[in-house]
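pasting for the record
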Amino acid sequence: MPPFETLLAMAGFALAASATPGPVNIIGAMTGARYGTVQALAFVTGATASFLVLFLAFGTGMLAGTGWILALARPMTLIGSAYLLWMAWGLARDDGTVERQDLNRAPDFWSGALVQGLNPKAWLAVFSSLSTFVLPLADRVTGLVALAVLFGVICWLSLMLWAWGGTRIGQGRMRLFNRLMALALVLSVAWMIVSAVPVTQ
């Protein structure tokens, strides 16, 4: 088991990576605003599960010395960014109307998994956390498991908090909220592309 100080640092990183604004947080807030916290539960759980799959898959690969994994960072950042910008365009064009029959079309578990899997922020968080906290440890396997547990709990709670925050938006302000979220999504994607440059060189 990593030292307590290392666990605290891991938790702090997981919180910063999960709670700060990013594409999945923004979509979670939009889902909460449009459909409510309960309807956002499946999306949040799918996004969290997807992150853990990425984390454990790449963590296991890195520990096994599979260097080609790092080569995936650049293409996945570009593909994910294009997908998220397309989502931002659709969000900006949305008129903010919420009708009761739309409730059964809330983003589901697999929507959350897809968005998180293509999320450049998730890829950056995975590579950064593995290289910073897991690879330097003597017992890397235990460190990988400990960080995965911390990420799972903190990511899920953070996304649920964003979804709950979205429910605080009044229906009369939905159109403005959608456009602000679309702008935030574009800015977060731009920031992540810039941040990914040193990681993927």
